[in-house]
Design goal:
Blueprint lengths: L6 E2 L14 E6 L2 E6 L5 E4 L2 H4 L16
Antiparallel strand pairs: 1-2, 2-3, 3-4
């Protein structure tokens, strides 16, 4: 089991509760995850190269990487 190191984003403001310096970021399966440690708001961001292949009316839910 690998542990993922969470890092805080200095000066960032949570889009949900507007608290400053409460956003932590880490990577899960090649997807960047941002979470507010105050209110629990989650946001996932895919890699730039995947995002540019997504058509404007679609959303990426996850990325499948066969092992």
């Amino acid at each position: 089991m690998s542990t993922t190191r969470k890092r805080f984003i200095a000066g960032a403001v949570c889009p949900s509760c507007n608290a400053m310096d409460t956003l932590a970021v880490w990577r899960e399966d090649q997807v960047e995850v941002v979470e507010c440690v105050k209110c629990g708001h989650h946001q996932r961001q895919t890699e730039q190269q995947v995002e540019k292949h997504v058509r404007p009316q679609e959303q990426v839910i996850g990325i499948f990487h066969p092992e």
